[in-house]
Write a structure and sequence with these properties.
The radius of gyration is 61 Å and the shape is rod-shaped. The chain is α+β, with helices and mostly antiparallel strands. The chain is built from 13 helices and 15 strands. The longest helix has 42 residues. It has a five-stranded mixed sheet, with no helix packed on it. A three-stranded antiparallel sheet has the order 1-2-3, covered by helices on one side.
Length: 514
């Protein structure tokens, strides 16, 4: 997301304290309660927590103070002295001024040459307008004084009294009184404006933008709020608020069932902090995705989503969801006669948690598999049959007896060792070979057999076939049409029987012609 805004949103310097010394947000290092550089108050900056240097940042104030301590002390002393002098000049000590009335009207004054005072220059004209000797304040007698004269009294001179004491006011260097007052006002205004500008620039403006960003977030305008918080940089907890915006957006997507979008927002929030408190939200999304796929019968995808949730936090409820999905897969495969994959799915469900329900489903798969593949015979069929018999599964005994009953397959041809190719018609002069292949019976079980042969004339012969036969045995019987019957055409039938039960196992019929 693009950054918005370019105006500065934080002080160039941080407020820090080190004993009697402190660094202002303008960068000036001070000793006292007011910044010499910008006029901000130390207590005010102390209360504005955002101007404090973050705890994670290394402080360099101690080093700066050691380097500038002497200069700081000089500045502080000079500032204090100047303040005292300005305050002293604000009022004149009138107690040292001698008023005119002290001399009285009946005193004869001889204005002869008088001794000059140490603090006054009588060779200069008196100017009450303030011009001339700057900073000197004179007392006035009359608008115009008479010329002084000496008179005798008993041959003695009458002493001329001294003029009232002239008070010389301390003079500030470089500026006259009116200009000094104006300069002080200007400096005070600049300091005040600097403080106001600093407050607005570094405190008031970011705080207002922050409040607007919070309002946007609370109104659900999360993308707009994120842009506004990003523009604030590291002001206050802006980064954490951005993280919260992503969490809130994720919550909205989650409630709408848009789990992939919710995961994206939650993972973004997770990347903005070192804590793992968003992990459960992401996990819930994967569970939601799994539930959605499960409802749509996309069970493999559902299991994949559930497993991702399980990687975040392994809990029994997720294991159960995965188990249910495997059962669903097994049911679907069983309905499609895909017995092998049905068995695998049920077996995985059973590995998660063994239940009688899944056991019955597994037995149903085995029963269906044996029923379909009984004629093919094989290890899998026989293993499933044994399992079903051990569990006394309904119908297993019938399948077992049917599978293990004896079977025989007869092929007729004119070769002594050909058990595959069949021949249906023979001449009376040909030798007929009946090849019998035996199957069935329980493991290691043996059977006793006999056969019958019916000639075209209807005559029947019966013959025993050895003592015992095992499953897989191959038996061959050969016959030639006998001379007494040579003139009759017809069918020849060869039949094999179980000697113990007299049950017919197999028969084969061929045609005999001239």
């Amino acid at each position: 997301m693009a950054q918005v805004g370019s105006r500065p949103v934080k002080p160039k310097y941080w407020f820090e304290e080190f004993g009697d010394y402190w660094s202002c947000s303008c960068g000036h290092i001070n000793k006292g309660e007011t910044c010499v550089g910008c006029g901000l108050n130390r207590g005010l900056l102390r209360r504005i927590f955002i101007l404090h240097k973050p705890a994670s940042s290394q402080s360099s104030l101690g080093t700066k103070i050691q380097e500038q301590k002497e200069q700081i002390d000089k500045e502080a002393a000079y500032h204090e002295a100047m303040t005292s002098r300005v305050q002293a000049n604000a009022s004149t000590d009138l107690n040292n001024i001698r008023p005119i009335e002290e001399f009285g009207d009946d005193v004869d004054v001889d204005w002869g040459k008088a001794s000059p005072s140490e603090d006054a220059d009588y060779n200069s004209d008196v100017n009450c307008s303030g011009e001339g000797d700057e900073g000197i304040v004179y007392t006035t007698l009359d608008d115009q004084l008479p010329e002084p004269a000496e008179e005798e009294s008993d041959g003695k001179l009458i002493p001329v009294p001294q003029l009232p004491t002239v008070i010389k006011k301390p003079k500030l260097p470089g500026l006259p009184k009116k200009k000094l007052h104006l300069a002080i006002i200007i400096v005070a205004a600049l300091v005040l404006l600097s403080g106001v500008f600093g407050f607005v620039k570094f405190i008031a403006a970011p705080a207002q933008d922050y409040d607007e960003a919070v309002a946007a977030m609370e109104a659900g305008n999360y993308e707009q709020a994120i842009e506004m918080f990003q523009a604030l940089g590291d002001y206050s907890d802006s980064m954490m608020m951005i993280r919260q915006c992503y969490i809130e957006m994720g919550n909205v997507h989650f409630e709408a069932g848009e789990f992939e979008d919710a995961i994206t927002d939650y993972e973004t929030a997770q990347d903005l902090a070192e804590t793992g408190d968003v992990a459960d939200l992401i996990r819930n999304c994967y569970i939601g995705i799994g539930d959605k796929y499960q409802e749509e019968s996309q069970l493999k995808k559902a299991i994949e989503a559930y497993r991702k949730a399980q990687e975040i936090n392994k809990t029994e409820n997720i294991r159960e969801e995965i188990r249910v999905c495997f059962i669903g897969i097994g049911d679907k495969r069983l309905a499609d006669d895909d017995y092998e994959n049905a068995f695998k799915a049920y077996d995985k469900a059973q590995n998660i948690k063994e239940t009688e329900e899944v056991k019955d489903k597994i037995n149903a798969v085995k029963y269906a598999y044996v029923s379909k593949n009984m004629d093919n015979r094989g290890e899998t069929v026989e293993k499933y049959l044994d399992d079903l018999m051990a569990k006394k599964y309904p119908g297993a005994k019938e399948l077992y007896d049917k599978y293990y009953e004896w079977h025989a397959k007869i092929v007729a041809n004119g070769s002594a060792d050909d058990f595959k190719n069949k021949k249906k018609t023979f001449t009376k002069a040909e030798t007929v070979f009946f090849h019998t292949k035996l199957s069935g019976g329980k493991p290691d079980e043996k059977i006793k057999l006999y056969y019958t042969l019916q000639w075209p004339t209807g005559q029947v012969e019966t013959q025993m076939l050895g003592d015992e036969w095992k499953s897989g045995a191959k038996i061959t019987a050969q016959f030639m049409y006998p001379m007494p019957m040579f003139g009759v055409d017809g069918k020849m039938t060869f039949t094999v029987y179980d000697r113990e039960s007299n049950k017919e196992l197999a028969k084969c019929t061929v045609n005999i012609k001239d």
